[in-house]
Structure formats: C-alpha cells, structure tokens
Design goal:
elongated, mainly alpha, 25 helices, three-stranded mixed β-sheet, single chain
C-alpha cells in the first residue's frame, strides 16, 4: 500500500510538471504575465486572436513542444497550414450543420474542461501502466535503479509544484516582481525567468534519466547476451567436464607460441613471456574507439574468460553464473549513478547564468519569448559566453575521453588472456597483466596533468588514499578512492553533457535556425549563422561524449568487481543450489 501511494504521488507530480513543460500553456512566455492573470476568455482571445472558431484547436498551436519555438514561427506555420486548418474547420462546420447538438456540445466550455481533465488522467494512467510494465520486465538486481529514478522524477515534480504555488503564482510573486522591476526594469522578467529555468531543469532531468534508461537497456542486453553465450561454457562434448580448449574453440581465441621449449608442459614463466608479447595495447589511447565498436559477443567472451579465472582462483562450482554476478554489480552501481543530490545542480548555475545573461540583457526570457530573435547572434559575439563555452567544451571532451580511456586501460590490465598454442593446440589461460611486476611498473593510468587533477579531486591522491593492494595500484593517483571518485566522474560528466545538449538545442540552435529559415530580423544578423554552426558543433561533440557513457560505465563495473575487488557475497548469490534457483 505504501509503495502504491508513493508511486501515485510521484506520478501526479511528474504528470503535472510534464504538462507544464511539454504542452503549450496559454500565454506562457509568449505574453506578459498580466495577461495570464486575466480570465480564460481574455487569454484565449490574446493567444488565438486570428481564429474565430475551432480552428485554433486543430492547428499547429496545439502540438506538444511547440512552445520551444518563437511565436513568429507559430504564425509562419499557421499560414503554411492554412489549407489543412481550412479543411478541418470545414469538416467540423459540416458536422455541426448536420447534427445541431454537436455544435452545442463542441462550443460548450464545460466540454473542453472535461476533455482537458480526461487527457491529464489518461496521461497519469499511461504513466502508471508504463511503470508497472517496466517493473515486471526488469530483473530483480536492476529494480532499485528504477525505484531511484522514480524518486528523482518525483523530486523534480515537487520543485515545479512549489515554484508555481509559492513563487510565480503565490505569495512570493509580488516580492519577486518588485525586485525584478527595481533591478531588471520589468516586473515580469524575473518571474518568467523562474518559470523558464524550472522548465529547463525538468527537461535536463528527464533527458538524464532517459540516458540512464539507455544505460539500463545496455546492461540488460549485456546480461541477456551473457546468459545466451554462457551456454558456450557448458560441456560441449558431454563428458561432464568443461575444458579450456572447448571454451577457446567457442570464442575463437588467438593462437600463439606459448610452449617455447616444446616439452609439452607450459610453465608459469612461459605464460609470463607470452603475456608480455601480448601486452602494449593497454597504453594505446585509441583503444577507446576499439571498445566503442565492440559487439555483444566480444564483451560476453571477456566475461566468460573472467568466469574461468574466478572458477580457477576461487574454487567455484561449474554452475557459477557470471551473468547473474554482473547483473548484481551493474544494478548496485547504476543505483548510485542515477541518484542526483541537490549539489548535482550546482555546476549548472554558472553555465546557465552566463548564457542566460545574453537574453536578460535584451529583456528576453528564453527562446520561446515573442522577442526571442533580439538575442540571435549575441551568444557568438559576447566574449564571455563564447570563450567560456569553448573552454567548457574542451574540458568536457577531454574529461569524457579520459574517463573512457582509463576504464579501458585498467580493464585490459585485469583481464586474463585465453590463447591456444600454435604447436600443440593446447589452450592456456594467461594471468592478468597486472600480476607481472614488469608490466605493472610500466603501466600508468594517471599520465601528465591528469595526475594533478586526480590529486585535486581526491584531496591528496596517493598520500591521502594509498593503494591497499596490487589491484589498486592500477588506479593511478586516485588510489583507493578510485571507485567512488570515478563513479561520480561518470555521473557528473553525463549530467554536464545532457545540460549542454538541452540548452544548446532548445535555446540557441532552434532559435537561430528558425530566424534564418523565416528570414526574420535578428539582434545581430552577422553573428547568427556562425552562432548556429559553432553551437551545432558543440552539441554534436556532447552527443558523442554521451555515447561513450554506457561503455565507460560497463568497464567501470568490471574493473571494480574482479580480481581483488571480487564481492564474495554476490558470488555466492550467483551459485544456484539444489533447493533454490536464481531470483
């Protein structure tokens, strides 16, 4: 019962804010706040004054997300769609003339009030059904991730509810209006800015959770693929024993000379020598692009090799299911990734404040304002905005690629290598590279300036968090704080990319593209096209960085759950017994 009440409350809040954010509210942003305080008839008359019948309800004004574009674009497309509107209006008029009662029904305000409320209730039902369906299809280890995402969405909904009832439409409205008039010159400007920023935060949050959903999907696909390919680890010849040769043949591993003296026995020293001949690619920065192209079969093969080493090192039974172990690991880390503390929003403040100053300086609230084109071109020609954005883009790109490279290079040091001997076809499982002291000394996951950065964010680096084992030596300057620091690093970088994409596309790119397409007058015509091009490049860069996040996260989970970081409790949960199978 408690869970049902909680999800219903979350759904109500989310539905309310979703309606505000993604449906075109009457008079919102396009018209002065005083108009919105008038009666509904006045507001409707203002916004749909060029319509004298139900044409307004069938035009492009009613499309979701249309409020993201300036009102000039609305007028343009209204004229473009006049033939469609005329057809729909004529059809409705014919229906009204044929059935008089229909005319009375459609022109009754109560009818449209009922339809509006029914739409909201339908949206609420669709939300709850979707959540129930997701929960039914989600494996138990991933379930806490869904719960955490729902809680965060509820928090975003509460922020919107508070602002609309207390700030913009409540007792603080007059105070904020007075402050806005005193310092910004217009009473409505700051109030409208509150509404815009609250909507922007909601959109950023929703997109972040959509990205988290993509990661969850990638995790579930990985687990499913592991479950399918784990059949390769079964006894293919039915003799009751799984051999390395059977696994090597199934995974089509590389052949090389391991037994150098040809005596038919592979010693530890021969394995180390073979391992050193295989090494070197862990230092290659471009290895992240190889990871980017990896398919499910290659990744599943890595996990099956890890399974063989775990069985060998920990004396696990053949029934050990590596896919369930990693499902537990993924779920635990994903739950941490999608949790957004209030401090997560702090980095957005300088980013949005600098960009939004371009609009506020020209008495523009956002890209949906009637005078939004007055700011076009000034984002490009304002040095503080342009240079700070370029700086942020460079930092973000380096940050995202370093995260991906670090996870990839550490993973390669931790993976055992399965090879077959060219001379006799015997399969051998070479130890992880980090167990060779020569390769360990040559490895450095914190090169150059990145060591300084890790020392800064770990508050002392190796001095404050020295490695407690050989495994942690791979983590570089972050030392034993690596799991927490880099989990937060992946989360905050993803958050930053999402914020850049949302603001750049909705507030700059869409506005500039609309102005150029319509041939409208802009505040700075010379800067509009360069502004559109450079911010489009910024958005493409952010999308690319965001596309690295699922692979980076999966590699993070691997490097923090194998070798000396094995979680024995989860290992035991991945071993079924006679009386109990997996949940």
């Amino acid at each position: 019962m408690k869970g049902a009440v909680t999800y219903t409350f979350v759904a109500l809040l989310s539905t309310r804010v979703a309606v505000e954010a993604f449906a075109p509210p009457l008079g919102r942003a396009w018209y002065p706040r005083s108009s919105r305080c008038a009666c509904n008839a006045d507001v409707i008359g203002m916004k749909y004054q060029h319509y004298n019948d139900l044409k307004s309800m069938t035009s492009l004004h009613a499309l979701p997300l249309f409020h993201l574009f300036p009102s000039e674009l609305v007028s343009h497309y209204s004229s473009k769609s006049s033939s469609i509107d005329s057809f729909l209006t004529t059809a409705i008029h014919q229906a009204e003339s044929t059935v008089p009662l229909l005319s009375a029904f459609l022109r009754n305000p109560t009818t449209w009030s009922i339809l509006a409320m029914t739409s909201i209730v339908s949206l609420l039902l669709a939300w709850e059904n979707a959540i129930e369906s997701i929960r039914e299809k989600t494996p138990k280890p991933i379930m806490p991730v869904i719960d955490s995402m729902l809680a965060e969405v509820g928090g975003l909904g509460f922020i919107g509810l508070f602002l609309s009832t207390v700030v913009t439409g409540g007792p603080l409205g007059q105070v904020i209006g007075h402050i806005s008039e005193e310092f910004l010159g217009e009473e409505e400007l700051l109030l409208e800015t509150f509404e815009f920023l609250h909507t922007f935060f909601f959109e950023v949050g929703i997109l972040f959770f959509a990205v988290a959903g993509v990661v969850v999907g990638a995790v579930l696909q990985r687990v499913q693929k592991l479950s399918e390919i784990s059949e390769l680890a079964l006894d293919s010849d039915g003799d009751g024993e799984v051999t390395l040769e059977e696994l090597a043949k199934a995974l089509k591993v590389k052949s090389m000379v391991v037994d150098e003296n040809g005596d038919g026995e592979i010693t530890d020293d021969e394995k180390i020598q073979a391992l050193r001949r295989q090494s070197g690619d862990e230092k290659n920065f471009w290895g992240i692009f190889q990871e980017y192209r990896f398919g499910d079969t290659e990744r599943a093969g890595e996990c099956l090799v890890i399974r063989e080493r775990m069985i060998e090192q920990l004396n696990l039974p053949p029934s050990f299911a590596i896919e369930y172990y990693f499902a537990e690991i993924f779920g635990e880390n994903l739950e941490e990734i999608v949790e957004l503390s209030p401090l997560t929003w702090l980095p957005l403040i300088p980013l949005i404040a600098i960009d939004n100053s371009v609009d506020l300086t020209r008495n523009v609230v956002s890209a949906s304002s009637a005078n939004a084109f007055d700011s076009c071109g000034y984002f490009f020609t304002t040095p503080t905005v342009l240079y700070s954005t370029i700086f942020l883009q460079v930092i973000s790109l380096i940050w995202g690629m370093f995260n991906a490279w670090k996870m990839t290079s550490i993973k390669k040091m931790l993976l055992p290598t399965l090879v077959t001997d060219k001379q006799n076809g015997v399969a051998s499982l070479l130890p992880p590279r980090y167990q060779d002291h020569v390769l360990l000394e040559q490895f450095n996951s914190s090169p150059s300036i990145f060591e300084w950065g890790e020392n800064l964010f770990t508050k002392g680096g190796l001095k404050s968090a020295p490695p407690k084992n050989t495994h942690e030596k791979l983590f570089g300057a972050s030392g034993s704080k690596f799991p927490r620091v880099y989990r937060d690093s992946i989360r905050f970088h993803s958050w930053l990319c999402v914020s850049q994409i949302v603001y750049s596309t909705t507030q700059i790119i869409a506005r500039d593209a609309t102005a150029l397409y319509l041939g409208e007058n802009t505040g700075n015509p010379a800067g509009t096209l360069p502004e559109l091009l450079i911010w489009s490049v910024f958005s493409i860069s952010a999308i690319f960085q965001l596309s690295l996040a699922p692979t980076t996260f999966l590699n993070y989970c691997l490097v923090t759950s194998v070798e000396e970081y094995v979680d024995m409790k989860m290992i035991q949960g991945a071993i079924p017994n006679e009386n109990c199978d997996f949940p």
